[in-house]
Amino acid sequence: MSDVGTVLSTIISGMLLGGMLALTALGLSIVLGVMRLVNLAHGDFLVVGAYAGLFFLKFTGIDPLLGLPVIALLVAALAVPLYGLLLAPLGERGAEAQMMTMFAVSIILENVFVLAFSADTRSIERDYATLPLTLGSVTVPLIYVIGFAIAVSLILAVHWLISKTRFGRDLRASAADAQAAETLGVDVKRVQMATFALGAACAGVGGTLIGAAFQFGPSSGAAYLLNSLAIVVLGGLGNVLGTLVGGLMLGFLQSLGGLTLGDGYRDLVGMALFLLVLAFRPDGFLARRRS
Amino acid sequence: MGNLKSIFRAGAIAAGASIALGLGGARADEIVVGASLPLSGALAGFGSFQQWGYKRAFDEVNKAGGISIGGTRQMVKLIIRDDKTDPNATASNTETLISRDKVVAMLGSCTPALVNAGALVAERAKKPMVTGCDPLEVFMSVRKWNYVWDIFFSVPELAAAQFKALTDLGVQTNKKIAIWHDNGPDGQAVGGKIWPALAKEFGYEVVQNAEFPVDNTQFTSIIAEAKSKGAEVVLGDAITPQAIAIRKQMASAGYTPKILNIEKGAEPVQFAEALGKISDGIFVGGYWDPSFPYPGAADLAKAFESETKLTSSQHIADSYAAAQVLLDAIKAAASTDPEKINAAIAKTDKTYVVGPVKFDENHTAKLPIVSLQWQGGTTVIVWPKSAKTGELLFPLP
Amino acid sequence: MKTLSGLAEAGVLLGAFILLWFASDFVDDYGLQIAFRVLIYLTLAESWNLLAGSVGLVSLGTSCFVGLGAYVAFGLLNNIDAPLPLVLLGCALAGGALAALVSPALFRLRGLYFTVGTLALAELLRLTMVNVSAFGGAMGIFMQKDPPPLPELYHYALGVALIASLAITACARTRVSVILRAVRDDEDAAAQMGVRPYRVKLGAFVVASALVAIAGGVQATKLGAIEPYGMFGLQWSIDVLSMVIIGGVGLRLGPLVGALFVVALGEALADYPEAHVAIAGLILIVLIRFAPGGVVGFAETLSSPTRKRATA
Predict the structure, then answer these.
(1) Residue C45 within a domain
(2) What is the DSSP letter of B367?
(3) Chain B contact partners (≥3 CB pairs within 8 A)
(4) Do B113 and C230 touch (CB under 8 A)?
(5) Contact across the interface for A215 and B244, Cβ inside 8 Å
(6) Is residue B62 in a domain?
(7) C222: containing domain
(8) How many domains does chain A have?
(9) CB A120 to CB B45 under 8 A?
(10) B397 is a domain residue
(11) Residues 6+ apart with CB under 8 A from A116
(12) Does B4 or C104 have the greater pLDDT score?
C-alpha cells in the first residue's frame, strides 16, 4: 500500500471533511428530529448556500467565509416562507405529503438554478481553498482545516442553543412529543418553523464551505442529501453532538474504504455502513439519551 | 364496492389526457425532425450547446427558403425534447417523436448512454439518425448500425494525441505516468486499455492506474498515491465536475506534476472559470476550435458568443455539422422517405465546419484531434505544430 | 359481502384485460408506447400501494428492485437466451429473494427509519453496480438480441399490470385486508390478537418487490440497453411516490389515475423543455396542498361529500 504519511494524511483529511459534512447533516438531523420530515430538498439548500457564497464574493469582493452570517440569514429567509406556505398546512397529514412537497421544491430549485445560473459547474475560487497544510509527514488541505473549525464552532453553538436556551427546551419538547408540548404551551408551529430555518441555515453554511473546497452545480444536492442522511443515522436523530461524531466516523471509515478499495468505494462504504447502523442501532451509536 | 362515479371521473381524466396528448402534431407541409437532448440534469451544459447548434442549422435552411420536395418548398421544423440526462427518457422521447410527431429523422443526444438509448429506438423504427457527441469506437461497440450515423473523434487517436504531443514538443519528464480514469465506456477504453499500451510504446512507466465512478467526488487516495510514487505526468479522463474536483484537490494536497491532462472534462470553459489560475497549463484533447481552416468555423463561434453572451464550446460545431449533414441529405434525397434520406446520408462527402465528413462502412465519420492547453482562461492549440495557435506552457505552474 | 366484492372487482379487471389485449390491433404505435408506460407505472404504483396503503410502510426503494429486475433480465436473456416469460419469472424470484434477504434488517425499522432505510438500500445497490465492472460498471449492458416488437411488449406490460392489480384486489377485498390493516394500524395490538406482523409485512414486501422487479425486467427488455444510473436511479422511487400522491394514497383507483396523470403531464410538458421540471414540481405542490386525497379523493368528495372514500 502506501507509506504512513499518506495513510495518516488521508484519514485525517477524511475526518476533517466528515466534520464539515456534519454541519450540513446537522440541519437535516434537527428537522428530522423535530418535524419527522425527511427533507428531500436538503441538498438543494446546501447548493443555495454554495451559490450564495459564490455571488457574495463576486459582488462584494469580501471573502465568503466572512460573509457566512449573511449567507446563513439568506438561506434561513428562503426557508421560512417555504415552511409557512407549504409545510405548515400539511402538518396533520402523513409523512409522504411533506416529504413529496419538499421533493417538488427540490426539483423546482434545480430547475431555477439552471435557468438562473446555467448548468455550468462552479467553484468558489479562493487562495486558501487550494493550499496544502503540512505538519511533518502529514499533508491535509488547508480548507478542510478551516472548514472543520467553522463547522465545529457552529455545531457547538447549536448544541448550546438547544441545550441551554428556552428555544432549545421548546425544540426538545416538540421533538419528543409534539402533542404534549402543545398542551404545555409550546407554540409547536413556531418551533418547527424556527427549526426548519435553522436547519436550512446550517445546510447553507455547509454549502458555502463545500463550494470553496470542491465544486458544485445545479444537481449536486442529491449526493449531499444521502451523505447527510448517513451521518444523521450514525449520530442519532436529533442528537447534535452525535452528528459531529457521526461525521467524524463516516469520514474515518470512508477514508479507510478509499485507501483499501479505491476512492470510488468511499460512497459505497458510507452507504453500507449506513445500512448496518440502521439495522442494528437505528438510534445511532451515541443513543442513550437525546440531547 | 367501487365507486361508479369515481370510475367515470377516472375515465374522464384518461380521455382528457388522451386528447391532450393527441394535440400538437405537425402540419403536413413541414419536414419534421426530432431531437432528445439533456437540457436539465447533470449534462445540461452539453445539451444547451447542442440545442444551439441544431437550431442554427435549421434556421439557416429555413431562411434560405426551406427544402424542395417534389416541386414545393417546405420548411424544416425541429422538435426538441428534454431527456433530463436519463436514458429512459431519451428512449421514450425518441419513441414519441417518431410515433406522435411523425418525424422523418432524428438528431442525437449527448454522451454514449443517452445517444445509445435514442439510437436503438431510431434503428428499430428504421428512422435515420445523425449524431455527434459519441466517441466512435464506443458507438461501434453497441451494434452494427443501419440507420444511425456518428460524427465524432476516434478514441485511440484522442488517447495517442497526448503522447504524440509530448514527444513532438520535446518535453522532459521522469517518464513516470499516473493514469486516472472514470469507469464510463470511454474512460475505461482510454484509461484502461489504450493509454497503458501507448505508455509502453512511448517508453513511459505506468506507476498507477486508478479507476473511479463517473460521479466520484473524492480523489484523496488517488492523488496521494500518485504523489508518493512521484509521477510527473498525470493523464486523466473524467467529466467536468470531476475534472474540477481533481485539479482542486491536487492543489490542496500539494501535488503538482509537470504535465496534467484531463480528457473530456477540462474542455469546456466552465472548467477554467471554476478553477481560475490553477487551470493554467492543463492539457485536453479537442476536436474543434474556431481557428480551424474550415468554412464558417470562426464565424460560428462569433455568432454563438454574440447571441448567447457565453464563451463558445466545440460542442456547437459537431451538433451544427450533424444537423447540416442531415438537412443536406434530405435535400439530396428530395424526399421525406426515411430510406431515401438514409441512402443520401451514406453518400455524404463534403467539408463542414468540423472538417471533411464522409461516412465509412461502420457509419462513422472521424474528426481530427488537436491538443489544447489552458492559458489565462482560453485554450491554445499546442499540437500538432501545423495547427498551433500558441506556445507550450511547461511545466504545470 | 367482502368476498363477492373481490370477485366482482377481479371480474372487472379480467374484462378490461381482455379488451385492452385486443385493443393493440387498433391503436397506433404512439398509443401503444403511452399505454406501455402507463402500465409499467401502474404496476410500480400498485406495488407501492400494497406496501404503504395496506401495511403502512413508505418505501423509497422502488429503484432498487427496478434495477435488479433489469439486470437479472439481461443476465438471463444474454447468457441463457431463455424465453421472456421465464426471464420475467426469474426477475420475480430475484426481487422476492432480495426482499426476503433484507427484510430482517429492514423491518427492525419503523416508520421514518424504514423509509430512510429503503433509500439507503437503493443507493447502495446503485453504487455497487456502478463500481463493480463485472456488471458492466457505468457502461452498462446491451441486449444481444433485438427486443420483441412493441405490441408483444405491450401485452407483457398488460399482463404484469393485471397480476399487480389482482394482487391488490386479493389484499384489499378479501379477509386478508383486515389482517393487513391490523398490522398497519397497530402492530403490537395485532400481534396480541394472534396475527404475526413480521410474516404479514414480509409477505407484502416480497410480493410487492417481485412485481416491481418484473416491471423492471419488462422495461429493460424494451430499452435494449441498461446502465446503473438509469435503472437504479432514484427517479423511479420518486416517480412512484408522485403518482401515488397525485392519484391518492391508499385509494383503489389511485395508482391508475396517478399513472395516467404523470404520463399525460410528461407528454404535455415535453414541448416546454426549459421549464417543464419546475412546472411539474409546482403542479405536485398544488395537488398535495389542495387535494389531500389525490385526484381520485378529490373526485370522490366532489361527487358525494358525505360518503366515505373507497379505500384499498
Answers:
(1) yes
(2) E
(3) A, C
(4) yes
(5) yes
(6) yes
(7) 2-233
(8) 1
(9) yes
(10) no
(11) none
(12) C104
- Could you tell me which of C161, C178, C247, C244 has the C-alpha nearest to residue C2? C178
Q: In this structure, what CATH number is given to the domain that contains residue A30?
A: 1.10.3470
- Residue C66 resides in a domain: yes
Chain C: residue whose CA lies nearest to B186: C139
Output DSSP code: residue C243: H
Distance between CA atoms of A281 and A290, rounded to whole angstroms?
14
Write the residue in C227, C235, C273 that is nearest to B81 by C-beta. C273
Confidence of residue C312 (pLDDT cuts 50, 70, 90): very low
Please state which of the ranges A88-97, A158-167, B61-70, B138-147 shows the lowest mean pLDDT.
Answer: A88-97
Min Cα separation B175/chain A (Å): 21
Interface subset of C 169-208, CB within 8 angstroms of B: none
The top-scoring range by mean pLDDT among A60-64, B231-235, B385-389 is B231-235
Burial zone of B224 (CB within 10 Å; 0-12 exposed, 13-18 middle, 19+ buried): buried
Residues B375 and B360 in one domain: no
**Cα-only R_g, chain A:** 19
| C225 interface with B at CB cutoff 8 Å | yes
| Residues with Cβ within 8 Å of residue A179, at least 6 apart in sequence | none
What average pLDDT does range C57-85 have in this prediction? 90
Give the model's pLDDT for residue B28.
Answer: 65
Maximum alpha-carbon separation in chain B: 84
Report the residue of chain B nearest C12, measured CA to CA: B2
Which residues fall within 8 angstroms of residue B212, CB to CB, at 6 or more apart? A262, A263, A264, B180, B181, B182, B183, B219, B222, B238, B242
Any domain includes A225: yes
pTM value is 0.84
Contact yes or no for C296 and B6 at CB 8 A: yes
The closest alpha carbon to B119, from C223, C153, C266, belongs to C223
Q: Say how many domains are in chain B.
A: 2
Q: What's the number of domains chain C is made of?
A: 1
Whether B6 sits inside 8 A of C310 (CB atoms) is yes
Assigned domain for B68 exists: yes
ipTM of the complex: 0.84
Best of B4, B5, B6 to mutate (most C CBs within 10 Å, chain C):
B6
Percent of chain C with pLDDT over 90: 24
Q: Does B78 touch chain C (CB under 8 A)?
A: no
Q: Which of residues 17-76 of C touch A (CB under 8 A)?
A: 52, 58
Give the closest of A120, A132, A142 to B270, CB-based: A120
Question: Does residue C306 belong to any structural domain of this protein?
Answer: no
**Within a domain: residue A288?**
no
Return all residues near A211 (Cβ < 8 A) that are at least 6 apart. Answer: A49, A50, A51, A53, A54, A64, A122, A123, A124
Does the distance separating the beta carbons of B2 and C235 come in below 8 Å? no
Cα gap B313→B292, rounded to integer Å? 13
Helix, strand, coil share of chain A (percent; to 5)? 75, 5, 20
* Contact with chain B for residue A44, Cβ under 8 A: no
**Confidence band for B122, pLDDT divided at 50, 70 and 90:** very high
Closest CA to C170 of C32, C46, C293, C10: C10
Question: In chain C, where does DSSP find H-type helix?
Answer: 2-23, 29-49, 55, 62-79, 84-106, 112-131, 150-173, 176-185, 187-192, 197-223, 228-231, 235-247, 254-269, 276-290, 294-303
pLDDT digit string, tens, across residues B130-171: 999 999 998 998 889 999 999 999 989 999 999 999 898 888
B218·A263 Cβ contact <8 A: yes
Residue B10 to residue C227, Cβ atoms within 8 A: no
Contact of C7 with chain B, judged by CB distance below 8 Å, is answered with no
Distance CA A175, CA B105 (A): 58
Beta carbons of B20 and C28 less than 8 Å apart: no
> Looking at the DSSP assignment, which residues form a beta bridge with residue B365?
B151
A24 in B contact zone (CB under 8 Å): no
**For residues B227 and B220, what is the distance between their CA atoms, to the nearest angstrom?**
10
Within-domain flag for A287: no
Tally DSSP H helices, then E strands, for chain A: 11, 2
